[in-house]
Amino acid sequence: MASSLLPASVLDLASVVPVVVIEDAGDAVPLARALVAGGLPAIEVTLRTPVALAAIREIAREVPGAVVGAGTVISPEQVTAAVAAGSRFLVSPGWTDVLLEAMRASGVPFLPGVSTASEVVALLERGVREMKFFPAQAAGGTAYLQSLSGPLPQARFCPTGGIGPASAPDYLALPNVGCVGGSWMLPPDAVAARDWGRVEELARSAARLSAGRTCR
Length: 216
Prior knowledge:
Blueprint: E1 16-20, H1 28-37, E2 42-46, H2 52-62, E3 67-71, H3 76-85, E4 90-91, H4 97-105, E5 110-111, E6 113-114, H5 117-125, E7 130-133, H6 141-149, E8 156-159, H7 168-172, E9 180-182, H8 188-192, H9 196-208
Parallel strand pairs: 1-2, 1-9, 2-3, 4-5, 6-7, 7-8
Helix pairs in contact: 1-9, 2-3
């Protein structure tokens, strides 16, 4: 496990970050291996299920090519537990000062969630320039993010929520977007059938969306 090798920025890990909900801890390692083999090494495991922390722990231990992080982080206690399990980055759907300070103190990169200009400004005041934009499609999509790039060029985003293979390239073309998050490469029927070959191929297609794109 290489959890000591922390990324400098979540946004520069990969252009597409799979957002994973794991119901069976036994699926964690083969699922992560399929994503990594397909070219998607950054994996956000959401803390929405009882096995999420165990899944993070197994991926961190058994899949050296993966950079595993925790998503849906909403409390300081989850910050502590996620990092202890091996999370190398943290993502939240929103933020409070208490949660922000816990994530800042964790020592790993983090993306607090925003959906309004006021929330972006508040984070910039606190020295945070990299954020999750959520729920991306419902909150205004590419048009909203493009509007933010003029007055708030300091902020960079990972849009997540309602993004698929058709819309991802439009987000990735924006100057203030570092990556996108999504789960389209993990269709429920493929995961239920443990069809990791299909997951790998969908991951490979997702990875190709960033072909020729340079990090900003």
